[in-house]
Design brief:
With about 160 residues, this protein is α/β, with parallel strands linked by helices. The protein has one domain. The protein is about 35% helix and about 20% strand. It has five helices and eight strands; from the N terminus they run E-H-E-H-E-E-H-E-E-E-H-E-H.
Length: about 160
Amino acid sequence: MEKVLVSSCLLGQAVRYDGGHNFMESDVVCTWLEQGRIVAICPECAGGLQTPRPLAERVGQRILTAQGEDVTHAFSLGANIALKLAQQEGINVAVLKARSPSCGNQQIYDGRFAKQLIAGQGLTAEKLCATGITVFNEFELVAVAAYIAKLEAGAV
């Protein structure tokens, strides 16, 4: 059975930068929970950041808060912890929070704190992808379920 690494905020845990969550109500996720497939992590919290915490965006290889504080080290540490957890659990697939400077898999905010998106990945998504873990976001659950079915059928 394929396990899935999932951003904790998507499971309703109050770990977002503002103390909230991004709970995704989904039959697919409920089934995965019942099957014991889900391994949850918030890379930012794992890296030592508090909740709530200042909003941060990726600027090149650095992560900066709107106040200019460099929090790259905590984000990088969290990405390494997420990768180690995925490797320990034999995980090949992740569902991470879209647009996050940690977890975004296709787009991230441009670093000017003006809610402008650019093509790019968060540090955790980038690190997971670099080691062969396929990363999806919460808007791609149908695709992720199909991908898992292919993995389990040996078709990938």
